[in-house]
Amino acid sequence: MNIQMNIPVQEKLEILSDAAKYDVACTSSGVDRNNDGKGLGSCIAPGICHAFSADGRCISLLKILFTNECVFDCQYCLNRKSNDVRRASFTPDEVCDLTMGFYKRNYIEGLFLSSGILVSPNYTMELIYQTVKKLREEHHFQGYIHVKAIPGADQGLIDKTGYLVDRMSINLELPTAEGLKKLAPHKTRKTILKPMRQIQSTITTNKNEVAIFRHAPKYVPAGQSTQMIIGATNENDYQIVKVAESLYQGFDLKRVFYSAFVNVNQDSNLPALQSGPPLLREHRLYQADWLLRFYGFKSDELLSEERPNFNTLLDPKCDWALRHLELFPIEINKADYHTLLRIPGIGTKSAMRIVQARRMASLEFSDLKKIGVVLKRALYFITCNGRMMYPTKIEEDYIFRNLLHVEEKVPILENGINYKQLNLFEDWGGQQYDNLFMRG
């Protein structure tokens, strides 16, 4: 085993937890792993990474790289082989001891394990497999485990690991094959998409087996996700959203994560980023992602080749509504659920409440406020019993100016920036998104 044994575990933990900070593809929504009474931990529909579970609990996990050694030289990566950084690697036993130690101290409820490529993809994947196998079978850990599968590793290794973990992800790295060729020429879209396809196929087959044989082992029960770096190459928002849409449709992904490019290396092929990482762009992409996943929008509705980038001043849903004023105003007491979702200020939960409440009585604006509709946005696009809330012009410039005054303010960060990069310690659920990112 090519692992340094002379570095204290605490020092390895400092190196490898810091090395994992740029990987944001970490969430566990949608999986139940019950404790069978023989082991430690459980995974009952949790949100991991300092996320909020269904009952409001904030849950965290240990997030580390197995190693920051790497045989590849991706120009955007801090851990590329040509960089002079402190290197370290865990052993499977060290990862197990850390995970169990933190769990018993009630610090974590799960593990997120990624890795650089040590020696080869197969060698690294074997180490990851041995680690989770020890956790499950020797330490009887039944909490949440998310691992990064290694592109290029044998599918048999990936499959064996998939039966032991809750979620698996493979980083797409960059939105297009051209960008990958430019900044990571040793990687190809084929080597990344092939295991994603195989994981998807095995998940589907396994679901059918579990439906017939209830006690059959589950394969990646929380599904798979991926991550794209945004801003390292020159793709526009339309290209990125189209890629995400195709991944959701073609690979049944649970989540696509967007990571604003942080320039950690000096390289002529990388953008200078004089104004810092493109965090607002990342923010708009997450908003659009929610529209694709939960609101019934298509990428071609949000952007086009003629209009390839999002409006930085408005969220994508408001921007879409302003470009389709011929559809408004919409009568709240008659519109179906899917039409209600198109209205700025109305989220998934408030739309469902409207549908349920109007079975009992005709709704007025005061009722909508109690339901949770953000009337400061919605009033320009709706009527109640044929009347608007105030005399309002259905005119783009007029509504645009007024919406700018009520644009939801997110917490102010450094230098007055009021948006931030999604990171490991946030997994925004649908309602949090309605309340903060979208307000409908």
Automatic annotation (TrEMBL):
Keyword Protein transport: no
NCBIfam families attached to this UniProt entry: rSAM_link_UDG
Pfam families, per the entry: Fer4_12
Record protein name field: Putative DNA modification/repair radical SAM protein
Keywords: Iron, Iron-sulfur, Metal-binding, S-adenosyl-L-methionine
Entries under InterPro entries matching the protein: Aldolase_TIM, DNA_rSAM_put, Endo/Exo/Phosphatase_dom_1, rSAM, rSAM_sf, RuvA_2-like
Molecular function as annotated in GO: catalytic activity; iron-sulfur cluster binding; metal ion binding
Superkingdom: Bacteria
Keyword Transmembrane helix: no
